Structure formats: C-alpha cells, structure tokens
Amino acid sequence: SDVCSSDLDVNLIEAEVRNYLIYMGIDIYLISRVVNVEKEGNKIKGVYLSDGNYVEGDAFIEITVTGCGHS
After folding, report:
1. pLDDT of 19-32, one tens digit each?
2. In whole angstroms, what is the distance from residue 46 CA to residue 67 CA?
3. Region at 69 (left for phi over 0; alpha for psi -120 to 50; beta for the rest)
4. What own/partner pairs with CB < 8 Å and gap ≥ 24 does 24-27 have?
5. What is the pLDDT of residues 7-60, one digit of tens each?
6. Closest CA to 33 of 58, 53, 11
C-alpha cells in the first residue's frame, strides 16, 4: 500500500477540523517556525516564532509534514 494513500482523507477533513478549532476560539498558526521555547518548570509557557512574535498558551501542538511531496 502507498504510504501517501491517507493524504486524500486528510485533505477532505482538514478544512472541517480547522474551522471547528477556530469556532472553538483556538488560535492556529500555519506555516510558522518556532525558534525558541519559554518554559516554566517542565511546562511550556510560550513559544517564539521566526517572525518575532511570542505566543503564550495552555497547550501547543507542533506538526511537521515531510515526504509524499509535502515540505
């Protein structure tokens, strides 16, 4: 089976998931590079982005897509 065969399913639901997260008031930063992390103890307090912005949050999800024509 092709490793990339699941791309179609992801492409179909990505917009729905993104819209739901925005509806829930969750900030989404696409195509953003984290250059540094600020921690408080063993918890992430915030992240510094390559554009100079600092983002605080209760939770952070980092996703990197590689292979299958993605970069």
Report:
1. 999 999 999 888 88
2. 29
3. left
4. 27/55, 27/57
5. 557 777 888 888 999 999 999 888 889 999 999 999 999 999 999 999 999 988
6. 53
What the block records as the tokens of 16 is 């729905």
- Annotate the chain with three-state secondary structure: CCHHHHHHHHHHHHHHHHHHHHHCCCCCCCCCCEEEEEEECCEEEEEEECCCCEEECCCCCCCCCCECCEC
Please state whether beta strands 43-49 and 54-56 pair in parallel, antiparallel, or not at all (unpaired): antiparallel
Please tell me the pTM assigned to this model.
0.66
Which pairs from 52-61 meet CB under 8 Å and 24+ separation?
A: 55/27, 55/29, 57/27
